[in-house]
Amino acid sequence: MTDTDAEAATARSTRTGHPGAGQRDGTPAPYWADLSPGTGRLAPRAHFQRGGRRLALGGTWSFRLSPAADAPLDFLGSGGPAQDDGDWSPLRVPGHWVLQGHGVPRYTNTAYPFPIDPPHVPDANPTGDHHRTFHLPDGWRLPGTVLRFDGVDSCFKVWLNGRELGTSKGSRLPSEFDAGQALRPGRNDLAVRVHRWSSGSYLEDQDMWWLPGIFRDVTLLEVPPGAIGDYFVHASYDHERGSGTLRVDTDVPALLSLPELGVHGHPADQALPLPRVEPWSAEHPRLYTGELAPASGDAAPVRLRVGFRTVAIRDGRFTVNGVPVLLRGVNRHEHDPDRGRAVTLDTMRHDLVLMKRHNINAVRTAHYPPHPDFLALCDELGMWVVDECDIETHGFIHADWAGNPADDPRWRPMFMDRIRRTVERDKNHPSVVIWSLGNESHHGANLGVVAEWTRERDPSRPLHYERDRTYRHSDFYSLMYAPVAEVDRIGRHEEDAPAETADEPGTEQRRRRLPFLLCEYAHAMGNGPGSLTEYQRVLESHPRCAGAFVWEWIDHGLRRTDGSGREYFAYGGDFGDSPHGGTFCIDGLLFPDRTPSPGLDAYKKAIEPVGIDIDPDVGRIRIRNRHDVRDLSHLRFGWTLETDGVHVAEGELGVEPVAARRETDLALPALPALPSGPAGETWLTVRAVLAADEPWAPAGHEVAWAQSRIRRAEPRPAPGGHPRAPAVGALDEHTGQLRGLGGVDLMGPYLDIWRAPTDNDRGMGDNSVLRRWRAAGLDRLVIRTESVERSPEQVLVRSRHAPDGLPHGLGTHYTWTREGDALRLTVDITPEGPWDGLSLPRAGVRFTLPARHNRVRWYGKGPGEAYPDSEQASRIGLFAADVASLQTPYVVPQENGRRAAVRWAELVDPVTGQGLRVETAGSGRPFGLTVRPWSSEELEEAAHPPDLVPGGRLHLHVDIAQHGLGSASCGPGPLEDHLLLPQPWRIELLLRPLGTGGPS
Fold this sequence. Notes:
Layout: H1 3-15, E1 38-39, E2 54-56, E3 59-66, E4 89-93, E5 106-108, E6 127-135, E7 146-149, E8 152-153, E9 155-160, E10 163-169, E11 175-178, E12 187-195, E13 208-210, E14 213-214, E15 218-221, E16 231-238, E17 243-250, E18 254-258, E19 263-267, E20 272-274, E21 288-294, E22 302-306, E23 311-314, E24 317-320, E25 323-324, E26 327-331, H2 345-357, E27 362-364, H3 372-381, E28 384-388, H4 412-426, E29 432-436, H5 445-457, E30 463-464, E31 477-480, H6 484-491, H7 505-512, E32 516-521, H8 532-541, E33 545-550, E34 558-561, E35 567-570, H9 598-606, E36 610-615, E37 620-625, E38 635-643, E39 646-653, E40 663-667, E41 682-690, E42 702-711, E43 747-752, H10 759-762, H11 769-775, E44 781-790, E45 795-803, E46 809-819, E47 822-832, E48 842-850, E49 855-862, E50 875-882, H12 883-886, E51 899-902, E52 904-908, E53 915-920, E54 927-932, H13 936-941, E55 953-962, E56 985-994
Parallel strand pairs: 26-27, 26-33, 27-28, 28-29, 29-30, 31-32, 32-33
Antiparallel strand pairs: 1-10, 2-15, 3-4, 3-6, 5-13, 6-12, 7-11, 7-15, 8-14, 9-10, 9-12, 16-17, 17-20, 18-19, 18-21, 21-22, 23-24, 24-25, 34-35, 36-37, 37-40, 38-39, 38-41, 41-42, 43-48, 44-45, 45-46, 46-47, 47-56, 48-55, 49-50, 49-52, 51-54, 52-53, 53-56, 54-55
Helix pairs in contact: 1-4, 2-3, 4-5, 6-8, 8-9
């Protein structure tokens, strides 16, 4: 169906008063609420400059906001709005008016921000009138000129010099109009009316801020006679012969030139065999640059970038160029904390460079086609792309899917319009390897029609759609947020049949032959996600698995300042918007300002394209090349040896160029002799780094690493003499807690089992461990000191911590002894009563000390924060930071900043050198270390980071273990191995004053 066919069909249904197409009294609906995808538009085509000049129309426009859709049309003609009309003000285009002082942004996850009354929208429909004057360059050819809008949210009508050109819906898709007859030499007046809500809004419920406006480029394109209007590159690769075939379909006769391949003036529409070409892949994005010249006329040639590649599903595996590919991906919304979805080219490139540097090789464009320049960058830098159509009707879940447009034939023209504009715009990008029909729109006949058209138009790419559990229209079996164990079952073809296919043998047999794609997983909300390494190892172990995409790339916070001028990032409800999705838009691997979160570091480690296994017992290093295409010749491997974090030696490993998906074993390098006698622990670290500059990173950039302990530390001998109890006055005689340590005003210890809940602790719905923690009273323990027993050798403090009204509790024994210039503290924690398998937040103790001791040095895992199911991204070493730097500034304050496997830590006043050293005692286990300028209670109460104000004391948390992170904010909780189930715990510490006279 063409654009004209779709518009005519909708117009016929509107004239006849078809239910849902017009008003309830039978009169035609206004264009913003009818079922037409648009009027007056040109047919969709590929994104390129059409052989003539282009005039960018971004910049400062005049703007007026009206509360309803039928505001006066008094700004269309020559001169536009009156100069003295106070209703008009300057507005940046591309941009969103709600981010420039006109109205407020609104965020919802699933709920529509208007009544479910399709296709109608409320009378209160904020409408933005835009006007700008531009001058046409001298000699511009008027006939055939195209006016292009790359993105307008959500519906608009356009006039040029007072003449209506047309209307359009489909916010994240281009709309082109014939401007030639309305255009005139010299001065021109362009007027655009944009409606916040339209019938199209029912197809755009995509878990994001609702941000109206002209948010992508507006461009005027000169079209010389004979210019190429559209083309479709078919560039396949034969992996068995190393050859390519090239054909370019064009709307006018054209000649193809690819100088690198010796092609000059070949008829574009004739298949051209090329005996030797280099294929395009995300790992090696080889592009050939050429031209497509019209066979007649004086239009300039069109510049081509051709990538040869063949995408296929073979034997249930997703392949490119004959090789199985594993997608290590992210879902990416377009977002900028100041500009919303009006992202710049620099921002797009920055995103892709960050992805490449963190080993990400795939993007799902959630949940709409991105700016076209983003795909050009994916072609250039190398990224597998799942290109998703601008369709999501998730809000109908609140109506039990009644009225869902996906199964209503009256909406078919709008569905078809959106897939056509997606496919036609993006068809020439080699990076686009999968078309996605949309997201979370349940199921329905319209999806089948969309799939059928797409397969016919472009049989070279497979299709994806997750929410229809029959998978009739998808070439992938796809799920969201499946637990690790379920992914493992799916990989082994042992999953249960979906209810929708259980009674349909043919459908179920087809589904079981499909490759599996985890299109969303590891919800990156707040502190998390956890278990990324476990997911990745399962995905790598099963040929059926085509990969997975973390939800999502970036937090959607919008930059604001509070009354004191302190900056923070806003989320749903912060603008007075209701209904709203609260903090659920803060769920990315990047903070809103594009600072990587610890979750991105954890993901980089989990998806390393090189596996390095060091086995000192057998003297072997195994190198696994996890690349799908590339050998390891682009990397060099170095090693370092450290004892207690101090550099001992370094060298290079000679690693052959191991082929993709192959491995090799190396002997351990010749290491220097280590000193005999008591010594610290020694670690060998092997790193794989870039041997030369890449377009996305310089030489020396670390791609992968591994560590192994070569020698354990030998316990230091205890000081001679008999153990002694701490001096009188060091401990409170009633509680047995410290009153001070040497010259350090150290207070504690206090039992520490609570943490400021993470987003994943809060969970979604019933999947909330926080709800169980609160029900068990873990946030309101009451202490009872049972006894303080003093002897010449030690002080023993017995106490019990338990919640009001409940029988369970925790018995604690604190045993103090003096050991040289230090105090030795042994903490025994014993669960008492019926805990019923409840996991605890943490098990540890906390202290407080003056805030001036704010320089922290530690030996353990670092440099970043680490939790039981995310600490794989941290390595053993010697690190230092101030307390402020130890905090992770999550947009929503929560538990953060823990360093794992700490052997010792020092907190020092940088002015006086005085401070505290905490270290493991004897054969005690390494501990988790957290140092904050505020308490856990203050952290929990804060809604935004500016709510946290440092006090006069530091809060030092030392734990033996914590509950894992998981991704239960929208997915599974931590794996069983990462639950903190009640058990007896022991913590053994030495507390040593620094720069003071001793522990008394």
